[in-house]
Amino acid sequence: MSIGGEHTSLSTEGKHHMTETALLGKTILITGGAKNLGGAVARDLAAAGANLAIHYRSTRDKGLAEETVEACIGAGGDAIAIQADLTSVSAIQQVLDTTVRQFGSLYGTVNTAGLAQGSPMVEVTEELYDSHFDINAKAAFFVMAESAKRIEDGGKIINILSSLLAAFTGRYSIYAGSKAPVEHFTRALAKELGSRRVSVNNLAPGPMDTTFFWNAAADGEAEYSANATALGELTKVEYVVPWVRFLMTNGWWLNGQTVFLNGGFSTR
Predict the structure, then answer these.
(1) Selected catalytic residue, list 56, 107, 175, 239
(2) What range does the domain containing 193 cover?
(3) Tens digits of per-residue pLDDT, 79-116?
(4) Is-catalytic flag, 175?
(5) Dihedral angle over CA of 154, 44, 162, 202, nearest 10
């Protein structure tokens, strides 16, 4: 490339080295990081040398969170576990303050926390509606906003949404509906943080082969969802994990976007 009239080049080996060391010593918060996609993302980023704050909500996930912390440390990063109910803004602030206090900075946030239950609209209760919007919309909004207050220049914020945002289907009105506002939050925050070179994006996997999907799915839904993809299978965690690392490193130019990762399940 040409800079100021001088020709410079970066070898493939040099580019690879930059990618491999880009996250070394960087601090990343993973909400919902004890298991499923969040746990796998944490392990992968730790292998790249990152410091991980592993958030989990329920005491029943404490053991899984501790296992993820141990795995992250074993992979080469440093890690802590933090329990909190993210429907409380003060709890979100405490999670982020604990993260920064422990590691000294915040480079990235990956928001994988979510709630999904499949129900026909005529069966949705007010409590079920509120619980979905509290986790999927309100918590996401304030995790993003509070991260933005603390994140270093050049940092990254990534939300995990759902390919159901582009699907024509029943049973998931409050799940997909409560995820939809996050696309608007993402566009706004990307604009607001652009001058600081902070990228904000969403990854929207298709129906994923994890307990998060299986606990919400109706009989036969897994087979139907797999057959609905162009590639004939459910999305697997390992198909999504590399995209998180990509957006944390070389993929920084993508901004304010939602990327559908679903093997051809839905498109928009």
Answers:
(1) 175
(2) 21-261
(3) 999 999 999 999 999 999 999 999 999 999 999 999 99
(4) yes
(5) 10
